[in-house]
Amino acid sequence: MRTHLRTHLRWYILVLVALGTLVNYVDRNTLGVLAPQLREELHFTTEQYSFIVAAFQLSYSLMQPIAGFFIDFIGLRFGYFLFAMLWGTAALLHAFATSWQGMAFFRGMLGIAEAAAIPGAVKTVSIWFPPKERSIAAGWFNTGSSVGAMITPPLVIWLAVTWDWQVAFLATGAFAIAVATIWVVFFRVPEKHPLLSAEEREYITQGQSSEDLPKPSVLDIIRNRKFWGIAAARFLTEPAWQTFSFWIPLYMVSARGMDIKQFALFAWLPFLGADLGCIVGGYLAPFFNNRVGMTLVNSRIAAIAVGAVCMIGPGLMGLVNGPITAILLFTLGGFAHQMLSSVLYALTTDTFPKQEVATATGLAGMAGYLGGTIFSLVLGQLANTVGYEPLFACLSVFDLVAVAILWVVLGERTGPRRAAVAVGAE
């Protein structure tokens, strides 16, 4: 067992990252699952619910670059630990909300604290995996978000029905504190991990500079044209995942006639599809690179394009009848979004040096969550008038436009296939 651990340690580290991502998404999705019940308990309207959702999205989006820079500056081990402790505490405090304003305040706290999770995970992939494995690693760690979202409905509804909704928040918040403890005990960077063999360390660091790297530079990142291509793609694609995370329960109960217990039987399906999308996207990019002959960057964009085409499915929501068919279209949407989302993370590691990866991911994530925030506020204003379905159709268009932007800004049109990543990625 010890020999196996020493030669495949990077995959055990990835399991640790995926666990953190899983709990992160359990904590953020608990509100969406309980939204139909909380609307009655706390007496808020659909519009006020959009304000609660936006409180998380806005604080999360603005904090992501700060959290990413913080992790780049002080290091992964203690940076991630501190933020995980904070988000667990914020999740616990949801149990004490007595109004929609109080819930919005605690959601804002959660957004600030959870902002470090994805930048930290992407940075972990950039330092623990060689370039050829990064899309696969990003896909697997991103399954944590989908698994977390998938298990949240049955878990949270069971807790709420068995005890009450306050217990659901208390329990899920405690999970994050446990993860923070596990992280700080077991995580180390490759240079300092006592169980990492010389053979695996050499494999991980192939092509990476051994020189001391400068501190992250926000100015260098925002001056990079490729950053703006990635940020624009995140701005356009992220509203889909925010909609799936926060609005599916309310939509299925209010527009499709399900009660909360019926919804719990099927709510996991979109996130099972999302899990599959993470994995397929991770392996699809190397397939395009190795078998089709695309450059590394073009293979990423091609995989993102496949996901964008599949996102047409949820856009057809207004053409179908019955709640089960609607759930299946959301399942296709979950598959599509997480496919393209995972590969977008890998594309970030290809574009920026490892000392800037978390910062760049945070800045791009800020753009994504700003897009999600705007869309949630629009949804809250228009859901009761024009309906949900036309807005779901917009999500399909956004993803197709995102692919076009990526191709224009980052696409490689000349030269032989390259196995290496962009300048500075290593």
Describe the structure.
This protein is an all-alpha fold. The chain has one domain: Growth Hormone, Chain: A (Up-down Bundle). 79% of the residues lie in helices and 0% in strands. The longest helix is centred in the N-terminal third of the chain and has 33 residues. The chain is globular and about 55 Å long. It starts with a helix and ends in a 16-residue tail after the last helix. The relative contact order is 0.16.
In short:
This protein has 426 residues and is mainly α.
Number of domains: 1
Give the DSSP E fraction (strand runs of 2 or more residues). under 5%
What value does the Rg take, in angstroms? Answer: 20 Å
CATH class: Mainly Alpha
Proportion in helices: over 70%
Envelope shape:
globular
Could you give a short account of the major beta sheet?
none
CATH superfamily: MFS general substrate transporter like domains
Features:
mainly alpha; 79% helix; Growth Hormone, Chain: A
List the helices and strands and how they pair.
Layout: H1 2-7, H2 9-41, H3 46-74, H4 76-93, H5 100-114, H6 117-128, H7 131-162, H8 165-186, H9 198-204, H10 218-222, H11 225-246, H12 248-254, H13 260-266, H14 269-292, H15 296-310, H16 312-315, H17 323-351, H18 357-382, H19 389-410
Helix pairs in contact: 2-4, 2-6, 2-7, 2-8, 2-12, 3-4, 3-5, 3-18, 4-5, 4-6, 4-8, 6-7, 6-17, 6-18, 7-8, 7-14, 7-17, 11-17, 11-18, 11-19, 14-15, 14-17, 15-17, 15-19
